[in-house]
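Hi team,

Below is the intake form for Diaminopimelate decarboxylase from Massilia aurea. Please confirm the fields before the structure is written into the shared record.

FORM ID: S-0412
PROTEIN: Diaminopimelate decarboxylase
ORGANISM: Massilia aurea
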Amino acid sequence: MTSTKPQHAPQIHFPVVDDVLQVGGIPLPRLAERVGRTPFYAVDRRVCSAQVATLRAVLPPAVALHYSIKANPMPALVQHMAGLVDGLDVASGGELRTALDTGIDPARISFAGPAKVEGELRQAIAAGVCLNIESGNELANAARIGDLLGITPRVALRINPEFELKSSGMRMGGGAKPFGIDAEQAPQVLQQAAALGLDFQGFHIYCGSQSLRLDAIIEAQSRSIELALRLAGDSPLTVRQLNIGGGLGIPYFPGEARIDPTPLGEHLAGWLPRLAQALPEARLALELGRYLVGEAGVYVARVIDRKVSRGEVFLVLDGGMHHHLAASGNLGQVIRKNYPVAIGNRMAPDGSLASATGPLCTPLDILADRMELGHARIGDLVVVFQSGAYGASASPAMFLGHPPALEVLV
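The structure came back. Fields below:
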């Protein structure tokens, strides 16, 4: 018997065969044996490829697609994504090295981040990647380092717009922000870039992420393009690229649904004639992370103990919030909600409830709160879905000294 959407985990991409979850076509218990120990993350490359293909099918060919490494910097995954997308976006020297190790043309890498230190600027300029400049001070530092190295830095201005992405789970623009150059200050910084003789590429306008409202995403992207056109009109420099971020979220919780990107492609296609006329050398780019890889990953931990406390069942796992901070509700959630969670080797629940908790000495270490997991036994495998983004690298792995989670691409 095969099912692709069991009721207790309505958002999953993975098939279930004979009551056992399959990841990358491998039954979960066999995958756990191959990995060697729990806990671990597994990302299915086929799901990532399918997500990219879905976007490519609806986006105009003229629109570039970038992968934001911060979503998941696992080297094997970044290598896979580098072969699917048009560019990689990094936010640290470590991510830059991961990107360069893929062999991708450095000209297809951009580097954002509000506090690039001297060594990171040197690395980026020497490699020939594009620096998304966050301030006038950073621009001056890039020019100085370029002079020392005898290399003209490639730069774009990261703009903090006056608007934000409505209904965004993470708002990166609008109001006072440490990210980017306020739009009203951009003309002055553009003049500074021209005076310094830098290799100007264009604009990076990223106003938010994790939105499931397509109307809000379309509005924010329209306003981003309009802002870029206005800034370009006052600029002494030629715009060759326009990165307007992404904002597309994935569903985590009951009542949430996947975005159909078709209207987004139609919307961007409507902008292309005007962009071609006003900015003939510029290529429009979308920068996405979570949307491309988030649904492709699972986090797997083993039940070490099963106990009853005053009538409630607890499954005590060998993994928890130190590996998966977001699933514990401690990475931006105001009110804790359960991610989709299941018993991967017993996917048919019996309706009984249990909570899944980790090994840490804190009541915050909860991966599932009173979900249909009560049929689990000691040794079973608990699976947290929607775990392909902001998992291991966004969690306090050193807390209490437990071993890190392993990561595999299947």
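SUMMARY LINE: Residues 1-10 have pLDDT under 50 and may be disordered.

Thanks, M.
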